[in-house]
Protein backbone atom coordinates (compact mmCIF):
# COMPACT_ATOMS: atom_id res chain seq x y z
CA UNK A 1 0.00 0.00 0.00
CA UNK A 2 1.47 3.32 -1.00
CA UNK A 3 1.29 6.44 1.13
CA UNK A 4 -0.59 9.48 -0.14
CA UNK A 5 1.55 12.48 -0.98
CA UNK A 6 1.97 14.85 1.96
CA UNK A 7 0.16 18.02 0.92
CA UNK A 8 -0.97 19.13 4.34
CA UNK A 9 2.05 21.38 5.07
CA UNK A 10 1.70 23.08 1.67
CA UNK A 11 -2.03 23.65 2.20
CA UNK A 12 -1.41 25.08 5.66
CA UNK A 13 1.28 27.36 4.29
CA UNK A 14 -1.02 28.60 1.51
CA UNK A 15 -3.93 29.12 3.91
CA UNK A 16 -1.66 31.00 6.32
CA UNK A 17 -0.43 33.24 3.52
CA UNK A 18 -4.00 34.03 2.47
CA UNK A 19 -4.95 34.82 6.08
CA UNK A 20 -2.03 37.24 6.37
CA UNK A 21 -3.02 38.90 3.08
CA UNK A 22 -6.60 39.34 4.31
CA UNK A 23 -5.41 40.82 7.62
CA UNK A 24 -3.09 43.26 5.84
CA UNK A 25 -5.89 44.31 3.49
CA UNK A 26 -8.26 44.91 6.42
CA UNK A 27 -5.67 46.96 8.31
CA UNK A 28 -4.96 49.09 5.23
CA UNK A 29 -8.69 49.60 4.59
CA UNK A 30 -9.36 50.55 8.22
CA UNK A 31 -6.47 53.01 8.36
CA UNK A 32 -7.52 54.68 5.10
CA UNK A 33 -11.14 54.97 6.31
CA UNK A 34 -10.03 56.48 9.62
CA UNK A 35 -7.81 59.07 7.95
CA UNK A 36 -10.46 60.37 5.54
CA UNK A 37 -10.77 64.15 5.99
CA UNK A 38 -13.95 65.66 7.44
CA UNK A 39 -16.98 65.36 5.14
CA UNK A 40 -19.54 67.85 6.44
CA UNK A 41 -23.23 68.44 5.67
CA UNK A 42 -25.70 70.80 7.32
CA UNK A 43 -29.30 69.63 7.61
CA UNK A 44 -32.54 70.71 9.25
CA UNK A 45 -31.77 74.45 9.46
CA UNK A 46 -34.63 76.58 10.81
CA UNK A 47 -35.37 79.79 12.67
CA UNK A 48 -38.42 79.94 14.95
CA UNK A 49 -40.37 83.12 14.23
CA UNK A 50 -39.01 85.56 16.80
CA UNK A 51 -41.34 86.76 19.53
CA UNK A 52 -39.24 89.92 19.79
CA UNK A 53 -37.98 92.02 16.86
CA UNK A 54 -34.60 92.38 18.62
CA UNK A 55 -33.31 88.82 18.57
CA UNK A 56 -33.73 85.55 16.66
CA UNK A 57 -32.29 82.06 17.08
CA UNK A 58 -31.21 79.48 14.50
CA UNK A 59 -30.92 75.70 14.82
CA UNK A 60 -29.44 72.97 12.59
CA UNK A 61 -27.38 69.77 12.61
CA UNK A 62 -23.86 69.40 11.21
CA UNK A 63 -23.01 65.81 10.24
CA UNK A 64 -19.51 64.54 9.59
CA UNK A 65 -19.19 61.30 7.64
CA UNK A 66 -15.42 61.72 7.38
CA UNK A 67 -12.78 60.00 9.46
CA UNK A 68 -11.38 63.14 11.09
CA UNK A 69 -12.88 65.73 13.43
CA UNK A 70 -13.45 69.34 12.42
CA UNK A 71 -14.51 72.41 14.41
CA UNK A 72 -17.30 74.88 13.81
CA UNK A 73 -15.59 78.26 14.34
CA UNK A 74 -18.47 80.64 13.64
CA UNK A 75 -21.78 81.37 11.95
CA UNK A 76 -22.84 84.49 10.05
CA UNK A 77 -26.25 85.49 8.79
CA UNK A 78 -27.69 87.68 6.06
CA UNK A 79 -30.15 89.25 8.54
CA UNK A 80 -27.81 90.27 11.38
CA UNK A 81 -24.34 91.74 11.74
CA UNK A 82 -24.22 90.36 15.30
CA UNK A 83 -24.37 86.58 15.15
CA UNK A 84 -23.04 84.41 18.00
CA UNK A 85 -23.02 80.75 18.99
CA UNK A 86 -24.38 79.99 22.47
CA UNK A 87 -24.66 77.01 24.78
CA UNK A 88 -27.69 76.86 27.07
CA UNK A 89 -27.64 75.17 30.44
CA UNK A 90 -30.38 74.83 33.03
CA UNK A 91 -29.71 78.30 34.45
CA UNK A 92 -27.48 80.17 32.02
CA UNK A 93 -26.56 80.89 28.45
CA UNK A 94 -22.91 81.32 27.47
CA UNK A 95 -21.23 82.31 24.25
CA UNK A 96 -18.94 79.68 22.72
CA UNK A 97 -16.09 80.26 20.28
CA UNK A 98 -15.67 76.84 18.66
CA UNK A 99 -17.49 73.53 18.81
CA UNK A 100 -16.20 70.10 17.74
CA UNK A 101 -17.81 68.18 14.90
CA UNK A 102 -16.67 64.62 15.66
CA UNK A 103 -15.54 62.13 13.03
CA UNK A 104 -18.47 59.91 12.02
CA UNK A 105 -20.68 62.05 14.26
CA UNK A 106 -22.74 65.19 14.46
CA UNK A 107 -23.09 68.51 16.20
CA UNK A 108 -26.70 69.37 17.02
CA UNK A 109 -28.03 72.88 17.57
CA UNK A 110 -31.44 72.57 19.21
CA UNK A 111 -33.44 74.38 21.90
CA UNK A 112 -31.97 73.83 25.34
CA UNK A 113 -28.48 73.02 24.08
CA UNK A 114 -26.79 75.06 21.35
CA UNK A 115 -28.21 77.86 19.23
CA UNK A 116 -27.08 80.70 17.01
CA UNK A 117 -28.26 84.05 18.30
CA UNK A 118 -28.87 86.78 15.74
CA UNK A 119 -29.19 90.17 17.43
CA UNK A 120 -31.04 93.12 15.91
CA UNK A 121 -32.23 91.47 12.67
CA UNK A 122 -32.24 93.89 9.74
CA UNK A 123 -35.76 92.86 8.78
CA UNK A 124 -38.77 91.39 10.51
CA UNK A 125 -38.72 87.60 10.20
CA UNK A 126 -42.04 86.00 9.35
CA UNK A 127 -43.05 82.38 8.93
CA UNK A 128 -41.90 81.08 5.53
CA UNK A 129 -39.05 83.60 5.14
CA UNK A 130 -35.55 82.35 4.38
CA UNK A 131 -32.41 83.24 6.33
CA UNK A 132 -28.98 82.50 4.86
CA UNK A 133 -26.56 81.05 7.43
CA UNK A 134 -22.89 80.60 6.60
CA UNK A 135 -21.03 78.16 8.83
CA UNK A 136 -17.23 78.43 9.03
CA UNK A 137 -14.98 75.52 9.98
CA UNK A 138 -11.36 75.17 11.01
CA UNK A 139 -10.48 72.62 8.28
CA UNK A 140 -13.38 72.44 5.82
CA UNK A 141 -14.77 75.03 3.44
CA UNK A 142 -17.59 77.25 4.67
CA UNK A 143 -21.13 75.97 4.09
CA UNK A 144 -24.08 78.27 3.41
CA UNK A 145 -27.60 76.98 4.04
CA UNK A 146 -31.08 78.47 3.87
CA UNK A 147 -32.92 78.29 7.19
CA UNK A 148 -36.70 78.52 6.92
CA UNK A 149 -38.55 80.66 9.46
CA UNK A 150 -40.99 78.36 11.28
CA UNK A 151 -43.88 79.21 13.64
CA UNK A 152 -43.13 80.46 17.17
CA UNK A 153 -42.33 77.46 19.39
CA UNK A 154 -41.65 75.13 16.43
CA UNK A 155 -39.80 71.89 17.23
CA UNK A 156 -38.78 69.58 14.35
CA UNK A 157 -39.75 66.46 16.29
CA UNK A 158 -43.13 67.93 17.29
CA UNK A 159 -42.41 68.03 21.04
Could you explain the architecture of this structure?
The protein has 159 residues and is α+β, with helices and mostly antiparallel strands. The chain has a domain at 40-150: Sandwich (Immunoglobulin-like). The protein is 17% helix and 43% strand. The protein contains one helix and ten strands. Strands 1, 2, 3, 4, 5, 6, 7, 8, 9 and 10 form a ten-stranded mixed beta sheet that branches. The longest helix is centred in the first third of the chain and has 27 residues, at 8-34. The radius of gyration is 26 Å and the shape is elongated. 20% of the residues are buried. The model has no long low-confidence stretch (mean pLDDT 86).
Low-confidence stretches: none
Q: Tell me, briefly, the overall form.
A: elongated
> CATH superfamily name of one domain?
PCu(A)C copper chaperone
Number of strands: 10
Order of helices and strands: HEEEEEEEEEE
Helical stretch tally: 1
From the 3D structure, determine the CATH topology of one domain: Immunoglobulin-like
Spatial gap, N to C terminus: 83 Å
Sheet-strand content, in percent, reads 35-45%
Please give the radius of gyration in angstroms.
26 Å
Structural class: alpha+beta
Average of the residue pLDDT scores: 86
**Name of the level-1 CATH class of one domain:** Mainly Beta
What helical percentage do the residues reach?
10-25%
Major sheet summary line: 10 strands, mixed
CATH architecture of one domain: Sandwich
Amino acid sequence: MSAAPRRTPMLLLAAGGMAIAVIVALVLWASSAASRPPDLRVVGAYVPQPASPDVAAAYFTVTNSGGEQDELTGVTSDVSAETMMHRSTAQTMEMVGTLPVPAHGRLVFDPGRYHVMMEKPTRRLRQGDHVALTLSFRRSAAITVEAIVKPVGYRPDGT
